Amino acid sequence: MPAEGTRELGEERILILCVDRDNDIGRKAGVKTPIIGGKENIDAAIKLLLADPEEADANAMFEAVRIYESLKSGASGNILCQVATITGSELGGVAADRKLTSELNEVIREFNPTSLILVTDGYSDEEILPLIQSRVPISSIRRVIVRHSKSIEETAAIFSRYLKRILEDPRYSKIILGLPGILLVMLGILSLIAIFVRYDIGRWAWTIGLLIVGFYLLGKGYGIDKKIVSILPILFSSYGLIIGFSMLSGLLLISVGLYQSISQIISSTEISTKPIAEIAGIVISASLPTVISGLSIILFGRILAHLLTRDYRFWRTIVLMVACIWSWKIFDEAAKILIDPTLPLNGLWLSIVIGITIVAVLIPVVRFLGKKYREFFNVRD
Q1: Phi/psi of residue 139, each to 5°?
Q2: Rounded CA separation 378/310 (Å)
């Protein structure tokens, strides 16, 4: 009679293997694994049911023993059967696979099977299939469905996997958790304000909430958030501070100028009797000094920033600033004609020609100076 772990020529050894990947047997029943033998598996399954009567792994163990007894009673002399249960770890992942592999190797060393029948209580235990197939050929798989169906378990596992990804992956957590968080904080602040001022601001909450969602989706849709993040280091540099301050001052000046000129036109009693062209001319004439001054401030800030950083665009911005200043004269002549169409076009034509001449003369001068001071500036090809 051969030893338990040795195999005779032509002998078939069938191992009925029950897999408990999350180690319910060890955690709940306190049974040491691997469990080898029919009686040992029955005793362990009973302990597990006493600890948790709804545990599906115990039913899988009973099914493994049933298959073992059925094969054993009908097996011929050259067929040997054995039943065993191996467990993984409640931690899952690599820890569970390592423990399962270790116990499987121990069972194989003791019984030396030629084929294997796998018994599981659902799809999650089948993740060990590649580990088993690399060691012993699997002739059959028996799934024991007790309290739930496979589709429900798969759905629950997929849902938990995506839920974990949503909670841990910043790309998804910003949208799924961040945006509702902002809305809840906003609602909380407005509620506190409502308590102190004793005023119903429910409709304001909806308005602000819609604005927050709208701006957030707009920023995500056009990648504005990424652009803002990319320019933040530049804004906090000396270059960015100068450009930012000059741009803010210029835009503020332009806005104030436009507001004053439009307000004067609206408050005028004669506005309804004047044609649209004349109204446009009055608006241009009234807002022209502040608008041109604001644009000049923005360009002057860029000139200073380019000079400090030795940027070759310093020369180009000088040309733009000169053209901007001279455009004052061009727009002023155009505004006069809009207000009084009977005026001749000589002044407008002359200002346009002079402006083109100034730019045309300034460009070669700037190129000459750029070449002369080429070593000072960071010239790009």
Answers
A1: -95, -20
A2: 6
Please, which residues bridge with residue 19 across strands? 86
Bridge partner list, 118: 17, 141
pTM: 0.41
CA distance 100 to 23: 10
| 182 vs 213: CA distance, rounded Å | 9
Q: 16 pairs with which residues across the strands?
A: 83, 117
Sheet holding 35-36, edge to edge: 35-36, 79-87, 12-20, 115-120, 138-143
Measured distance CA(210)–CA(179) in Å, rounded: 12
Which residues lie below 8 Å from residue 123, measured CB to CB, with a gap of 6+?
Answer: 150, 153, 154, 157
**129 burial level (CB within 10 Å; 0-12, 13-18, 19+):** middle
Percent of the chain that is helix, strand, coil (3-state, to 5): 70, 10, 20
* Distance separating alpha carbons of residues 280 and 262, to the nearest angstrom: 10
Q: Residue ranges of the chain with pLDDT lower than 70?
A: 1-10, 75-77, 122-127, 145-158, 161-162, 164-179, 190-206, 217-226, 228-240, 268-272, 378-381
SS3 85: strand
Q: Which helix (H) or strand (E) holds 48?
A: helix 38-51
